[in-house]
Q: What sequence folds into this?
């Protein structure tokens, strides 16, 4: 990549890390969509994994006093099971399917029956969500929308949501890095300069967001988080549908 493109990606990573640092969500969802437009899916997944590990790892460190460790350990059980299953198939989706899944996920999560309200402290729910979220991570690059719904359904304050989810996400993105960087047949490689820019940009955006999160109320946090996720998800549904329609039209001719 040219220095100009790397600089533009660095600026985007600062902005998306800021969003994730503020709401604990959405930034990674925006970033993977842009990366999928610019590069092959395995490469986009590897770069996204490195960026999100830096962003979430730094966020978890900044809010370490608010991490709820029980949900983290239970979530990791599901992640491990999912990696084992996906390693047998080595499935890699194409871009339109990945984008559509990316957009549909938040709406599917919200359609769950009210009597199945997410409970982050439940062992079986945590393992189940860990398995499903990790599967989505390996298909779309993110599992944030579903994980957001899971943690927002519990009795967590905004700091606990951000800190606990960030810790889970570090493990999720590490698993994704292992899968797309070494397990699949078309494993990706990455420019070390771009990787360094991604790490620095993610830490900067996360740090800047901290003060604003401190000033928000829990009600404001939840309201704006839901609005942001809905807007971004709607865009990916439209974009993924357009790619599928364009491909179908090209094949017809």
A:
């Amino acid at each position: 990549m040219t220095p100009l493109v790397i600089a533009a990606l660095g600026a985007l990573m600062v902005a998306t890390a800021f969003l994730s640092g503020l709401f604990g969500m959405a930034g990674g969802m925006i970033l993977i969509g842009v990366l999928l437009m610019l590069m092959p899916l395995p490469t986009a997944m590897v770069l996204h994994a490195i960026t999100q590990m830096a962003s979430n790892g730094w966020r978890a460190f900044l809010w370490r006093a608010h991490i709820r460790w029980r949900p983290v350990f239970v979530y990791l059980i599901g992640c491990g099971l999912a990696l084992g299953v996906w390693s047998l198939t080595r499935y890699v989706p194409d871009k339109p399917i990945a984008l559509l899944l990316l957009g549909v996920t938040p709406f599917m999560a919200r359609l769950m029956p009210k009597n199945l309200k997410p409970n982050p402290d439940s062992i079986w729910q945590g393992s189940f969500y860990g398995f499903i979220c990790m599967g989505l991570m390996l298909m779309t690059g993110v599992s944030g929308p579903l994980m957001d719904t899971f943690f927002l359904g519990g009795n967590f304050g905004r700091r606990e949501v951000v800190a606990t989810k960030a810790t889970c996400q570090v493990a999720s993105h590490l698993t994704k890095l292992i899968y797309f960087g070494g397990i699949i047949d078309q494993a990706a490689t990455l420019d070390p300069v771009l990787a360094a820019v991604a790490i620095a940009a993610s830490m900067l955006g996360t740090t800047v967001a901290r003060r604003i999160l401190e000033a928000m109320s829990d009600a404001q946090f939840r309201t704006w988080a839901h609005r942001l996720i809905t807007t971004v998800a709607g865009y990916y549904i439209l974009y993924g549908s357009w790619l599928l329609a364009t491909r179908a039209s090209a094949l017809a001719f």
Summary: The chain has a mean pLDDT of 80. Residues 218-252 form the longest helix (35 residues). The CA atoms of residues 46 and 178 lie 9 Å apart. The two ends are 34 Å apart (CA to CA).
